[in-house]
Specification:
Number of helices: 10
Shape: globular
Low-confidence stretches: 221-228
Distance between the termini: 14 Å
Strand order of the largest sheet: 3-2-1-4-5-6
Largest sheet: 6 strands, parallel
Strand content: 5-15%
Helix content: 40-55%
Length: about 230
Amino acid sequence: MMKRPAAVLFDCDGVLADTEAMHNRIIAEEISALGWEMTPEECERHFMGLSWEAIIPRVQARLGPDSVPGDFIQGVVRRVLRELHSEVVPVPGVLAALEEIVAAGIPVAVASNSSRPELNTKLAGLGLAETFRGRSFTYNDVPNPKPAPDMYRAAAAACGVDPHDCVVVEDSVTGARAGRAAGCRVLGFAHPTPAAALQAVGAETFTSMAELPRLLGLETDLRPGGPG
């Protein structure tokens, strides 16, 4: 049985909200419009886990320093928000796992490389605004986005605990690096990122959110037929 963490710090996209495909489609379309033809699959490979600000220098390196309009990020965020207002779908199994973690008295926080309006909209759509109230962080809230450790250190501080006593739940190499840099144990949700890529940066991998309570040292397992 694993030792229970002092807090669990979640990424959002691909961990709480099943929004990675939507993000990849939108950013691929927007970058293609600038002149770098890109599919959603290529977008995922190039940019998964990065903040919008971190994507721009990579586009400029490919297309030139004046290739990205000054209002590019604002336009992308507006498109994302329009789609999020229609529906936000949870990652399968995560709401039940989160409910069990909270019921066990373990503080939770969320740290996302998305913008503050995006994260607020996602949490509201998932019914999790109150669950993470006062303990949600975006790239707008810290000096440096992931893979820097700033966001996860801030999330641990909001929970009143040391980062070394926390578990981070991530699905990207960028996010896993951030969690490890903050000193946290990292559980890497290997979907769609390959397990080997997450393991290479120090994450322990799993493939179903039903496994999460057990990996956190809770007594039940939400898989059919699991103990509990």
